[in-house]
């Protein structure tokens, strides 16, 4: 009787171990990528954008298995903080206190099953926001939860 219990227990353990081991090739252990270096990519580091106008956001996303979603955030850099993904240093305006800084934070979904995706969104900058230094940040998440961040510096100006 004891031998049958030990045998059944051992078989059960083997079954659990066999089913519990994921094939390492199917595990997604890589972060997705954000490409903003191609010819029509927008915005570019140190770019000047204008109040009361729209601008396109264009980037190409890729993942080794499947993309999830992305977030675009724009916030002021009036205090000269850094996100350390900028490709080049931009000349900064003097530090200042925001009065009506532009704030943008929007989530976007990517259709299921895609391992590449071209983002193409229009973003409007209100006429009455503060001019000055801003950060444009893209957060890309794949289906496995890995995230990539791209941050660039921008300026918002008035046309007149």
From TrEMBL:
InterPro entries: DUF4625. Pfam families: DUF4625 (PF15418). It comes from the Bacteria. This is DUF4625 domain-containing protein.
């Amino acid at each position: 009787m004891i031998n049958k219990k030990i045998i059944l227990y051992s078989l059960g353990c083997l079954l659990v171990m066999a089913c519990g081991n994921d094939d390492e090739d199917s595990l997604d252990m890589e972060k997705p990528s954000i490409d903003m270096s191609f010819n029509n990519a927008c915005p570019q580091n140190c770019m000047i954008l204008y109040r009361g106008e729209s601008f396109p956001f264009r980037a190409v996303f890729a993942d080794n298995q499947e993309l999830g979603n992305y977030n675009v955030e724009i916030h002021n850099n009036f205090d000269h903080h850094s996100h350390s993904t900028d490709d080049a240093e931009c000349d900064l305006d003097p530090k200042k206190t925001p009065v009506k800084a532009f704030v943008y934070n929007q989530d976007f979904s990517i259709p299921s099953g895609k391992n590449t995706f071209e983002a193409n969104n229009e973003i409007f900058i209100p006429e009455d926001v503060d001019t000055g230094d801003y950060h444009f940040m893209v957060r890309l998440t794949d289906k496995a939860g890995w995230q990539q961040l791209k941050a660039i510096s921008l300026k918002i100006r008035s046309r007149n």
